[in-house]
Amino acid sequence: MNPASPVDPLLPYGGRAHRVRHSDEPALVVERLRTRYANAAGWTLLDISFGVAAGARVALVGPNGAGKSTLLKVIAGLTPFAAGRVRIFGHPIGARHHRITYLPQRSELDWQFPCTVADLVMTGRYVHMGWLRWPSREDHGRVANALRRLEIETLADRRLGELSGGQQQRALLARAIAQEASLFLLDEPLNGIDEATRDLLNAVLAAHTRDGGSVLAATHDLGRLAESFDSAVFLRDGQIENQFALRTAGDVRNSPRHYHRRAEP
Question: By the 8 A CB rule, do 220 and 255 touch?
Answer without folding.
Answer: no
